[in-house]
Specification:
The complex is a heterodimer of chains A (207) and B (122). In chain A, 46% of the residues lie in helices and 26% in strands. By secondary structure, chain A is α+β, with helices and mostly antiparallel strands. Chain A has a single domain (6-206), classed as CheC-like (Chemotaxis protein chec, 3-Layer(aba) Sandwich), CATH 3.40.1550.10. In chain A, strands 1, 2, 3, 4, 5, 6, 7 and 8 form an eight-stranded antiparallel β-sheet that branches. The relative contact order of chain A is 0.24. Chain B is an alpha/beta fold. In chain B, strands 2-1-3-4-5 form a five-stranded parallel β-sheet, sandwiched between helices. Classes of the chains: A alpha+beta (207), B alpha/beta (122).
Chain lengths: 207, 122
Amino acid sequence: MTELNARQADALTELINIAFGLTAAKLSEISNHRVLLETPTLAIHPMDALARDLGLFVTGEVASVHQVFAGPFSGDAVLLLNYESAVKLSNLFVEEHLQSQRLDSSTGEILAEVGNLLLSACLGVFGNLLQARVTFSMPRLHLDSLEEFLTSIAIGSGESQNAVAITASFHIREQSVDGRIVVVLDAPSLEQLIQAVERWEGAQSSA
Amino acid sequence: MSSSILIVDDSSMSRKIIRGILESAGHEVTEAADGMAAIERYSLEKPDLVVLDMVMGGMYGLEVLEKLYEIDEHARIIVATADIQNSTREMAEQAGSRGFLTKPIKKEELLSLVNSLLEGAK
């Protein structure tokens, strides 16, 4: 399994910080609320460890917006919320008299579009900075348990059950919304990502 | 002056937001939720301008853009997308897009672009 040297880890961390920072800014812009972002983390571990890790964050019914991305590096990008936070987040975008305590087709579609905005922004930063073209699938809303949702992540069905997970938690405190953005790559994609990051880091250093 | 504008976006939330902005400026708005519907509507209605999303089910936005120019080489099409990549902007411009906006759409930016394109058409 790929291991990062200190320089690679530093460059990748910087890239992730920029991408997730801009994603949080996008969420703040569309929600009109201050968004607190925890420091993103990168972890390389088997898929079942990913489930364990995410299981610490969300229990019970999970609402997720999932987009598959492809290009020089490919994988899954996910906006992950517990059900209550998903309802609260979607309610930020509808008039008060239309707000609901459940996700229905209307608020579900709002959540999918919010996820699309955030995940596209996050992956778009990767594409822009690394000068790599990334394409996205349509956003899909899942309402499942975490275990059921993870089986839908494409990377879990590959030959390698190892995954690279880049995660960052965010909070909209006034609304008690807690969520997490997760980008999952397989090992070959991590190699591609590292090469692109090294080129980017080299260009930054010589600029 | 009121103009006819077609919004092509698979998200009803996005269509509602863009419709609200355009109608507040007095424009007449129609909608299509996918590329095929957009092509049908454009052929029938020949709107003055199209606001087109990129990532949609079925036909991708760039393909829709090319099809619309096959129907009408003078079509005025603005791309409005969550995809912020420079490469997407370049591909849209190469395909003939007259403007590129990233979501969330800002009212002033959209109306400024729409007005400049419609003014230029007179």
